[in-house]
Amino acid sequence: MPGTVLVTGGTGYIAGELIRQLLAKGWTVHATVRSKAKSEARLRALMGNPGEDRLKIFEAELMSDDGWAEANAGCTHVAHVASPIAAATPKDENEMIVPAREGTLRALRFAKEAGVIRFVQTSSMAAVAYGRNEKEYTVDESDWTDVTHPDVYPYVKSKTISERAARDWVAEQGGDMEFVSVNPSMVLGPVDDADFSPSVEAVRQVLAGAMPMAPDLGFAVVDTRDVADLHVRCLEEPGLGGERFLAAGRFLKIIEIADILRERLPAAHTRKVPTKVMPNWMVSVLSLFNPGVKSIKSEVGKSRHVDASHAKNRLGWETRPAEESIVDCAKSLIEHGVVKV
Questions:
Q1: I want to staple 129 with a disulfide (CB 3.0 to 4.6 A). Which of 59, 139, 163, 295 is the partner?
Q2: Is-contact 217 262, C-beta < 8 A?
Q3: What CATH number corresponds to the domain at position 165?
Q4: 159 catalytically annotated
């Protein structure tokens, strides 16, 4: 029988879909937000389904103890989805690393004190697939990002250090509490409103014409609905202590995403979608003037494929076609006025 689960970062892209699926399956959900005054009405409106009366909302922040004991009270499970996201690359990497690590350790401590039996951390492919010199390779759940590599940027470091710190803490102090991580790749799919996730920024930029040419970048794509489903399976399936599950589907270059949008959306909606790949030398020149381009310069030309067979074989998890995720994402961005066509 479903119990009571705490979902941190309740207004986030993955967390919102996870809460929806948990309520539909009969769970009671405690969700943390940074401000109830700003977030409660929006979160409840987005749920809009039977079971909303089983949703309780608490204020808690990653860098403060306030509210965590109350949020965990009565919970048997935790899905720790919250993690700091910066609008731009910080000058000091610790602005991302410290909240990610300390916030996760805080969530673990309060979960253990509350008697939680299963703690699922939303980690990232950032903790798995970076810090390598090869142009093309495949990773699985045994791989870890090398945070000492010069091309590894703060967000990637923060996710890697956070997951390693969590696993070390559970091994040393977790007692009987089981720890599982879910490591998603590029999360796409429909957005709920105009307050959209940074993970769909690539689709937004392609659709809005912010990229006159597509840089030679790519990602393994996964749908937010499928990522949430994998979290539910990790919360419910017995005997998963210590497991790590990669959530990813097909690897696609940005130009392939552009092609899918042109093929599957009305022509009037894709007039600004790029048709050509940006030469690598142009990326190098732009990186001299644009910090955002500079941060991705080392990613140009790389193909990181993901072997997600462990989640499929162990949990029966499946992913929908990447085309569906991309098109649903684009349609929702248009519907909510994020992209004007």
A1: 139
A2: no
A3: 3.40.50.720
A4: yes
